[in-house]
Structures are given as C-alpha cells and as structure tokens.
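Example record

The entry below shows one chain as it appears in the dataset: sequence first, then structure tokens.
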Amino acid sequence: MSERISLLTSERAEEWLLKPGVYFMQGNIASAEAALIAGCRFFAGYPITPSNEIAEHMARRLPQIGGYFIQFEDEIASINAIIGAAYGGVKSMTATSGPGFSLMQEGIGLAAMIEAPVVIVDVQRAGPSTGIPTLVGQGDVMQAKWGSHGDYEIVAYLPNSVQEMFDLTIEAFNTAWEYRVPVIVLADQSVGQMIERLKVPPLDEIKVVERNAPTVPPEEYLPFDSRYLIPPMAVAGEGYRFHVTALTHDDRGYPSTSHEVSTKLVTRLVRKIRENEKVIGRYEAIALDDAELVIVAYGITSRSALRAVREARREGLKVGLFRPITAWPFPYWGLREAVDRGARILVVEINMGQMVRVVREHYSNLVDIYFMPWAPGSVPRPHDILLKVKEVYGG
C-alpha cells in the first residue's frame, strides 16, 4: 500500500495540491488542505460535529492525489487505523471533537508507546458529554495531555485563526514524524468553522519533514534502539523484520517485565519531548515589556483578549497578552521575564479551569494569578474580558 501511495503521490500530488495564493477559506478545510501539502495520504474518521468538514473535504480530495479515505465504524477504529498506516510508512490523520476524542485515548496511548507518528485534529465543542455539539468549548486541554494512562509526552497546538489552522497542521505532521509522537491540533469550534483570509506560500517554501529511516542492514536494526533519543523508523515492506507491541518492550520490541527495561523505555518516551520543549513549544507575546497585568488566553479566546488589551491600553492600563501556541509543551518560559518583574496574571479560557492549573503550577508562588472562567457555548466578548481586567487591575 505504501509503495502504491508513494508512486501515485509522485505522479499526481503536486498537480492537485492547493496552489499558492490568497483564499477565503474555512478553518477546517484549511487544515485538510494543509494536511495534503504535508504529505497526508490516508484519513480515517467517524463523523462528529464540529469537525465534519475536515472528513468531508478529505473524502473528496484524497482520491484526487492517490490517497485513501475510510469512514470507520467509530473513533476507536479510526485512531487504530492511522497508527497502522503510519507503520506502513503513510502520513495519516484523523479529526474529531470531544466525545470522539475521549474514545481515542487508549489509541493515543498506544501511539505514544510504540512511537507512531500520527496527527489528530480535535475541534473542541461545548461539553461535558454531548454538551452543545454546534458551539464552542475549550475543555479538552487537560485531556489532550493526560487522557491516556501512564507516562508519556505528546504535542498539542492551539490555532487561533484560519491561517494557523493551515500552518499548524503542517507543523503537526512535521513534529509527529520528526519526534515519532502523536500530535494534536487542538482547535475549537469557532476557529474550525470560521471563514477568513488564508495565504498559501509557494510549496517549495513549506518545510515538510520526512521519516528518519534506518541506514543499518536489517539484521542490525533495533526498532526501539535506546542509543537514540528518537530511533530511526522502519516500516512494513522495507525488508526489516521487527516486533511492535503495546507492552513494555526492549530495544528489539519484545515484551519485558524488567524494571531496567521499563526505566529505559519510559524515560526516553518523555525525554524526547521534555528535552526539546523549547524547540517545540511556541507562544506569542504582545505588549509584555511594561505590562503590570498579563492576560493568558489561547484559541478563539485570545482574539477577544487582544481586543481587550488594546482597549485597556487606550485607557492607560498596562496590560499585555501571552498566547500559548502550544498547549503541550506549555511554553512557561515565555512568561518568566514579566513574572520576574512582578506582573500579575489573568487566565481567560472557555472552561472552568484547565490551563490556569498549569500557570499556577509554574508561577503561583511568585505572583498573584487570577482566573476568568467562561462556560462553554459562547466566546467571551472583549468587553467581558475588559471588565475583569479592570476589576483585577483596580483590586
């Protein structure tokens, strides 16, 4: 399958990829088009609002470039299918929302354990449970990191625009294949379904990361070679005979109950992200140089927060904005200078308290941290945030 997709890709893909230029496009569709540019040739999914446009678009577009789309019976099958495809050497993705994301958690843990590079786009909606399927939420932040059991690390991006739905989907594929890790595009309903300007650069200017393939003869290959932080990855059909299991495994991939093996494996699974957190982690800082109060907001909420910051500045209040672009790893170092200067922090998010826990973990013993929870189902207006800013600033 991987050989056929590779052949069709080389012959037809570039002709059918989105051409450079300026478009007026929905966020979900921008993510789908970005995935194709990044090399995605297999999509497995199950319908769920508000991510359906991604699956619908991929169902039409993948056959045009020799790729494959399969609607599975549920999200459990979908996540496992893309893990299998990754081990076939095919860049693969799925898309879902909260309830489906919950069903995928065991599969995400499997991907982390066997170091399968997969991409999941989670377009968050109001919850818990079925919640409000058509309206916005930001309640999956902690689930993205801690949803599966055990110790592992993932990467999760937080787009706040159609442009970032495009850019960060490509980056998600690059990160997944560079670090052999499941990567999540943690969007929200408003960003996923909004329509706005998208600029697509020339394709030769877009960085696309490919798999680090083994260079040793098959008889010398170790699929989980602990001499490497990120072992080279062989795939089915290349002549390498190797074993893959969800059980704790040694360098050869064989199950083991040895604590020494467990220590070596699990430590490496977390080290490969933690030791590269400042390479992977991203943030945007606005007006932090003299800020006395810093708003921390992400996704669609950060757009309201930026308007609130501008209005506060016009009124003479020294307010800045810190926008995490990665939820995980959380770019805590970007706040350090403002915190050292004594700036207080106000976290605004569409949930009852998720990212604020991470901010408190890093800075609660250094500065005052305030929180503005917002129930899912709507986006806080700039005016709502400004009122909270004045309350905190005055207090």
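Notes for this example: The longest helix spans residues 162-179. Residues 302 and 323 are 7 Å apart (CA to CA).
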